[in-house]
Every structure is written in structure tokens, then in C-alpha cells.
Amino acid sequence: MAQSKPRGVRFGVRTPFPKLGLRERAMLVHRLGYDGIELGHEWVNQPVAAIQEQLAGTGAAVSAIVGSIQLLDTDPKMRAEGVELDRRRLRMAKDLGADCVIEVPVFGANKFQDISPVMTAREVEEKLLVAGLKQLAPDVERTGVTLLLEPCNHKETHFMNRQSQAAEIIDAVGAPGLRTLSDFYHMQLEETDIGETLGRYGKYTAYVHLADGAARTEPGSLPFDYRPGFRALKKWGYAGWLTVESGATDDPEHALARALPYLQRQWSEA
């Protein structure tokens, strides 16, 4: 029996977009040559059937959807609701054929109390996050959908800024199906050397976001070289999504049209 050929990387879009509905966005993505679209909060509060109807026949796959983003709320009730919402999002992702659910543990400043010497505020957050993720581990395994932790820059969150911090949480949970979203925009701001960082922690990476520079413009708009990071990911055998999440230096459609061949070339040359 012939073995199927391993799937290579696929190229997707989270932003930028013209002001279009979901179906029109998916059709645009496909027409420009991308493989799929990532769905944020503006879409995933709809019923699965409604999303499926809008995407039917567009040729665009769903790469990932966002999770609850409330696993580190200070209110226990809200944290519990976050876990339940993530359970629903994992099932939704499976129904939509999406590979991943994206979870940023918390945005903004720390709101937990430091109770040193018993426990620092950060230790409280780490233990709560590990506990929440362990609750979700059976759902991750059941659905076969990867749950991603996304480190963001220090202007957006105090808690998880670097790839190493996501890796530590993943190791602490110790369950399959929990991986890292490696966002090149955030890494440009937080990591000393993206290639070196992914050379060390790229084994945790299951999804990638891409944008150029601190202004977060479309790939190829600046002389930013993705190849060192891509090269490190290739050494780990990366075969996931490379997804544009950026602004646009001009018209979003033209920006996306330019970004795809640039990224394809950068990946090929890495």
C-alpha cells in the first residue's frame, strides 16, 4: 500500500483584510494563492453550521481559531468559564477542520497578589495555568486539535513573553497536544536572536504568525529576513501553518498579494 506524501507547510492569513464578510475574505485568500484563513473572536461566536455555510466552496481551509483568553482571570468563576469555552472551541475547531486553538493566557498587567514568601504572584499564575491546561488535556486528546500557547510582547502582557516561558509551561503540564505559537512579530521585540531561539525551542512550535518590524506590517514590506528562523524550524521538521498576522502598508489585498511570494521564497531559501 502506497504511503501518503508528508504535507508541507501551508500559508494562511489572519490579517490584513479589506472590510469584507467571512465568505468574501476566504474567497480572497484562496484567489491570492493562500491555503487558509484563521478565525478570530469576530467569527467564532457564530454557530459552527453558519461558519461552515459561509466557507463552503471557497477553497480556503480554517487554519486555527482563537480560544477563551481567560485562563488567568483573577475570578475563579471566569477561569472555569474559560476552560469550558476552550472545550467548546476545541470541538468547534475539530468540526471546522482546523488544526489548532490559540490561547493567550492573559493580556495586560498582573492582577494577582504576591503572597511571598509562600508564593509570588507569578508562581500563582503559573500554577493556575498549569491546572487549567491539565483540565483541558483530555479534550485536546479527544479532539486531536492542538492547543497553542502564544507568547506576546511585554506591551501586551506581563506573563508570557518568550518562547522559553511557553516551553516551561508545556513541560509542566506534560500532556500531548499542547504546543507553542511562534509569532515573529513578538519575537522581534522579545528574543535576542530568533534563529537561535527557534533552534532551541522550535520543537514546541506547531503554528507561526508573521509580520515585519515593530510596525507589524506585511511580510516583505521591510528588509526583514525570516530565513534564520525558518531554517531552525526546518531542522525540527516543521510542517505547520505560516500565517500572516499584520497590518498593511497600503491596500490589504495588494499587501497580501506581495507577502505570499516573499514568504514562499524565504521558506524555500531557508
Structure description:
With 270 residues, the protein is an alpha/beta fold. Helix 4 runs parallel beside helix 5 and helix 5 crosses helix 6. The chain has an eight-stranded parallel beta barrel, surrounded by five helices. The radius of gyration is 18 Å and the shape is globular. The N terminus is likely disordered. Helices cover 44% and strands 15% of the residues.
Number of helices: 10
| C-alpha geometry | globular
- The H/E string reads EHEHHEHEHEHEHHEHEH
Range of helix content:
40-55%
Taking the alpha carbons of the first and last residues, their distance comes to 33 Å
Give the oligomeric state. single chain
Uncertain segments are 1-5
Q: Reading side by side through the largest sheet, how are the strands ordered?
A: 1-2-3-4-5-6-7-8
Structural class: alpha/beta
Number of β-strand runs: 8
List the main descriptive attributes of the protein structure presented here.
270 residues, alpha/beta, eight-stranded parallel β-barrel, 44% helix
Give a brief description.
The protein is α/β, with parallel strands linked by helices. It has helices spanning 22-32, 41-44, 48-55, 76-96, 121-143, 163-173, 184-190, 194-201, 227-235, 252-269, and strands at 10-15, 36-39, 61-66, 100-103, 146-149, 178-183, 205-210, 241-245.
Topology readout:
Blueprint: E1 10-15, H1 22-32, E2 36-39, H2 41-44, H3 48-55, E3 61-66, H4 76-96, E4 100-103, H5 121-143, E5 146-149, H6 163-173, E6 178-183, H7 184-190, H8 194-201, E7 205-210, H9 227-235, E8 241-245, H10 252-269
Parallel strand pairs: 1-2, 1-8, 2-3, 3-4, 4-5, 5-6, 6-7, 7-8
Helix pairs in contact: 4-5, 5-6, 8-9
